[in-house]
Amino acid sequence: MDLKRLKYFCSLAKIGNFTHTATHLGIAQPALSMAIKKLEDEVGLKLVNRAERQMTLTADGEVLLKHAQRILESVNQAELEIQELKGIETGTIQFGASSMLSSYYLPNVLAKFKQKYPKVRINLIEAGTASLQQMLLEGALDIALIRSDRPHDQIRCVNLFAEDMVALVPCNHPLSKQSSMKLADFCQQPLVLFREGYFLREAVSQYSKQQHIRLDIRFETNLIDLLKAMVVSEVGISTGLSRIVKPGDPVVTLPFEPKIPLYIGLGWKKNHYLSKASRAFVDFMQEHLPNEISQS
């Protein structure tokens, strides 16, 4: 079977629309349609149910999809192992991290890694910790910073650091004089929150559901500077990690009582081949990131 057609077929199955899939692949829609038709002719089976808006796989298409995914993953692993023969000096790492961690915890350590391995390319993909774990399972990422307190039977994870979540409150807010914040009190306030899928939102959402509290969410964003600006403007209070508040910011950080710890580690899929570059990255992060955090 033609590998390019299998790749197109898997992308179409994931996206579910010919036009959007063609755009994603960077080809014309007629070319995509022709490739899928040739694949159907090659296997002698109808693989997709075509509709104006949404495409679905036939039962035969579902069977082929499972095999096609395995074939493409095997080819990818083979390419990585062949690349290994060239040594650790080259390679590409698909690395995932949340926007907060990548902006406030990683710059120095990533710069040091690049100084040591200048020819290793790092593609940084930013998403929430829940999304990053799913991307690891799908093979879209080699390595990601994920929660290490939630083990998964298909993911290996090494612990890196732990940090407590804090409440972000304007300096002139009535609660700013407190030494700590109870989650029950936090949930009664107008809120500016990260979107679902982020740990800093998840703890609040879970508590509110357990206690049957209807949250007063005034603003949602994953942009850290915008979130802080909304807090300063008294749109609502928020959650964060203390590192994102700089000296002079008109924002107070209050620890939650009881504490809400965030445990972060480096994760990768168990059966996913880690290149020498990726293994060097894991070792480097284990050695340098905890020290970087403790010293800052």
Quick structural overview:
The chain is of the alpha/beta class. It contains 11 helices and 11 strands.
Task: Using brief descriptors, characterize the structure shown.
Arc Repressor Mutant, subunit A, D-Maltodextrin-Binding Protein, domain 2, two-stranded antiparallel ribbon, 296 residues
Any chance you could write out the topology, listing elements then pairs?
Layout: H1 3-15, H2 18-25, H3 29-43, E1 48-49, E2 56-57, H4 59-84, E3 91-97, H5 99-104, H6 107-116, E4 120-126, H7 129-137, E5 143-147, E6 155-170, H8 183-186, E7 190-193, H9 199-210, E8 216-220, H10 224-232, E9 238-241, E10 251-255, E11 261-269, H11 276-295
Parallel strand pairs: 3-4, 3-5, 7-8
Antiparallel strand pairs: 1-2, 5-11, 6-9, 6-10, 6-11
Care to describe what's here?
- This protein starts with a helix and ends with a helix.
- It folds into 3 domains: 82 residues, Winged helix-like DNA-binding domain superfamily/Winged helix DNA-binding domain (Arc Repressor Mutant, subunit A); 104 residues, D-Maltodextrin-Binding Protein, domain 2 (3-Layer(aba) Sandwich), CATH 3.40.190.10; 101 residues, 3-Layer(aba) Sandwich (D-Maltodextrin-Binding Protein, domain 2), CATH 3.40.190.
- Helix 9 links the parallel strand 7 and strand 8.
- The mean pLDDT is 90.
- The chain is built from 11 helices and 11 strands.
- By secondary structure, the protein is α/β, with parallel strands linked by helices.
- Strands 3, 4, 5, 6, 9, 10 and 11 form a 7-stranded mixed β-sheet that branches.
